[in-house]
């Protein structure tokens, strides 16, 4: 099959770029795949982080993507759509995670050949942080596509609300396998300069208000000194809020904050040093953090929001907390260690690895697209 993918790719950083690098490599094993990406993803004044791009020293998969569109330059929308069409794809795949991408991604699909099947992978449809234009752009976007891949039940329900009768398939977010192998726990802790023997809790990833780090810090502050908290990620939002909360905590000396974007080359260090990863989210669809954590066989404690429960399972690969509340997170952490649940959860994670491979995801995408093909002979 000739497949064209538009998404964030190298040199852009972050979870979507990581997702699509893995997807590209899996699809190209049996198909002819062309990658397209942004010239500019966000204007600098709207981007909350330090950089949109990977560090030149970081060891990432440099997917050869053609840079064709600037998000806030409408003059590039139609030339970008033409570039994708000129690749003559049997399948055009795009990834959707921000509503303000809906206009130009919809134009891309609308201007493909009548023989091209347009497939959208929906990471989010209803944004965590809502804006007045979301509903219109979502409707426009979904109406240009032939079918959809949803990564959780919550996104499936959102799709059915926006486009009843839409063709879709639900696939689990595959588990990442490009961050390297599990390191020796003691060596990882030594490298990070944290206590070698304390029960180690990890919060990993970009820090935004809806991710509930403040709830985890509050819960952790109630635990005894046999615990330590490892926070690794760049803050998108009010930095002083988190720093003040940490400084005022009675457990401040046991909170280790790596306040920066963590490059791919260092991801294994943080997960290898940890006993459990916590997702105290106030809202979610699914999370790429689960895909990284499970690769390193680190169990998860997460709130029951979005699709997290269906990914983790109730007491299968982690603990699900009923609501995003500090006392419930505290209870779950105590239970995890007091009941020695780690080995049980780790074995379940090992048993599920093959079912969450990128090769299976890529194969399912192609088979589904073929069933939706406009050229399919009845």
Account of the protein in words:
36% of the residues lie in helices and 17% in strands. The protein is an alpha/beta fold and 378 residues long. The chain has 2 domains: 2-174 and 357-371, 3-Layer(aba) Sandwich (Rossmann fold); 185-355, 3-Layer(aba) Sandwich (Rossmann fold), CATH 3.40.50.2000. The strands form 2 sheets. It has a 7-stranded parallel sheet with strand order 3-2-1-4-5-6-7, sandwiched between helices. Strands 10-9-8-11-12-13 form a 6-stranded parallel sheet, with helices on both faces. Strand 4, helix 3 and strand 5 (117-122) form a beta-alpha-beta unit. Helix 1 (15-27) crosses helix 14 (358-371), helix 2 (77-86) crosses helix 3 (102-110) and helix 3 (102-110) runs parallel beside helix 4 (134-142).
């Amino acid at each position: 099959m000739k497949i064209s993918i538009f998404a964030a790719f190298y040199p852009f950083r972050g979870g979507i770029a990581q997702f699509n690098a893995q997807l590209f490599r899996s699809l190209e094993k049996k198909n002819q795949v062309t990658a397209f990406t942004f010239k500019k993803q966000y204007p600098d004044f709207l981007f909350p982080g330090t950089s949109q791009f990977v560090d030149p020293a970081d060891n990432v998969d440099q997917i050869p993507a053609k840079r064709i569109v600037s998000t806030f330059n409408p003059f590039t929308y139609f030339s970008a759509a033409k570039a994708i069409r000129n690749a003559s794809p049997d399948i055009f795949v795009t990834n959707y995670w921000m509503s303000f991408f809906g206009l130009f991604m919809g134009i891309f699909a609308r201007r493909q050949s009548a023989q091209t099947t347009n497939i959208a992978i929906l990471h989010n449809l209803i944004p965590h942080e809502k804006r007045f234009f979301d509903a219109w752009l979502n409707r426009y976007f979904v109406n240009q596509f032939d079918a959809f891949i949803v990564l959780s039940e919550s996104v499936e329900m959102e799709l059915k609300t926006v486009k009843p009768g839409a063709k879709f398939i639900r696939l689990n977010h595959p588990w990442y396998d490009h961050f390297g192998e599990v390191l020796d726990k003691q060596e990882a802790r030594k490298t990070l300069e944290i206590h070698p023997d304390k029960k180690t809790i990890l919060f990993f990833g970009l820090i935004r208000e809806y991710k509930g780090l403040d709830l985890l810090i509050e819960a952790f502050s109630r635990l005894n000194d046999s615990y330590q908290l490892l926070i690794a990620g760049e803050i998108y939002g009010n930095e002083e809020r988190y720093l003040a909360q940490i400084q005022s905590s009675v457990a401040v000396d046991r909170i280790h904050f790596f306040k920066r974007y963590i490059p791919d080359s260092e991801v294994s260090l943080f997960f290898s040093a940890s006993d459990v990863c916590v997702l105290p989210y106030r809202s979610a669809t699914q999370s790429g953090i689960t895909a990284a954590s499970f690769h390193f066989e680190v169990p998860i404690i997460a709130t029951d929001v979005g699709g997290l429960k269906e990914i983790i399972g109730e007491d299968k690969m982690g603990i699900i907390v009923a609501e995003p509340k500090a006392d419930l997170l505290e209870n779950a952490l105590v239970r995890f260690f007091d009941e020695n649940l780690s080995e049980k959860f780790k074995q379940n994670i090992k048993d599920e690895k093959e079912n969450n491979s990128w090769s299976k995801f890529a194969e399912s995408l192609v088979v589904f697209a073929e069933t939706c093909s406009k050229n399919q002979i009845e």
